[in-house]
Design goal:
With 73 residues, the chain is mainly alpha-helical. It has one domain. The protein has 3 helices and no strands. The model has no long low-confidence stretch (mean pLDDT 78).
Length: 73
């Protein structure tokens, strides 16, 4: 099943939201260490996948976010 790069970037950002704001998900001030480790590892896997698929940049997510910022400006 093919997943769009934009879809991967959205998942990456949502995982970051969980890590940055665990209380908004009912996890208290800080998510349990085991959950933080898993989510961090998943984010790294997604970033690696996006970078490998892109092939033109060392940091696909930064490129994607930069393009989104350009659209908003």
């Amino acid at each position: 099943m093919a997943t769009s790069k934009s879809g991967l970037a959205n998942v990456y950002l949502e995982l970051g939201r969980i890590l940055d704001q665990p209380q908004s998900f009912g996890l208290g001030e800080r998510a349990p260490d085991a959950l933080v480790q898993v989510l961090t590892r998943l984010r790294q896997c997604l970033k690696d996948e996006m970078t490998n698929e892109n092939g033109t940049s060392g940091d696909y997510l930064a490129d994607e976010l930069s393009q989104d910022a350009d659209k908003c400006a």
